[in-house]
Design brief:
Blueprint: H1 3-19, H2 22-26, H3 35-63, H4 67-92, H5 97-120, H6 127-147
Helix pairs in contact: 3-4, 4-5, 4-6, 5-6
């Protein structure tokens, strides 16, 4: 086979790859992930958050939980939701699952922060708590992606 024909095959392959949609190229051969899929995963994460917060509020009302128990419950909810988002995104993407899990955990955290800023009319969170929550959400998303 001539060297020129190998070069032309490579050139044709690059042209086909350039014509693929961006979401398809990111998985490099695996199924792509669309914006709609990302929004569905985020919706599932926030539905789980809502159900678990409702359960925590019920336990607080019925059992008179202490402030530290409620704080632990909120951390568990962050971790569970981040894990779910990482797991679901890892199931959709076949490559780099942990990165997609981290991305979903980070997106979850950013929406939490945006909601907090909007409803509290400003940023009123301690920096250490901010960083801890970011690490929890991102880390649990990464672990969920690796577990998928």
């Amino acid at each position: 086979m001539a060297v020129g024909s190998e070069w032309k095959k490579g050139e044709i392959w690059m042209e086909k790859k350039a014509k693929m949609p961006l979401a398809r190229r990111q998985g490099e051969g695996g199924p792509g992930i669309s914006l709609l899929t990302i929004l569905k995963i985020l919706l599932a994460m926030y539905l789980v958050t809502g159900v678990l917060l409702l359960a925590l509020a019920t336990m607080l009302y019925k059992m008179q939980l202490s402030e530290s128990a409620v704080s632990i419950g909120i951390v568990v909810i962050y971790v569970a939701s981040g894990f779910l988002g990482g797991f679901l995104s890892g199931k959709v993407m076949k490559n780099r699952k942990f990165l997609w899990g981290m991305a979903m955990g980070c997106a979850y955290f950013l929406i939490l922060v945006a909601g907090s800023v909007i409803f509290q009319k400003g940023f009123q969170m301690e920096v250490s708590r901010f960083v801890t929550t970011l690490v929890l959400c991102t880390g649990s998303g990464m672990i969920g992606g690796m577990a998928s």
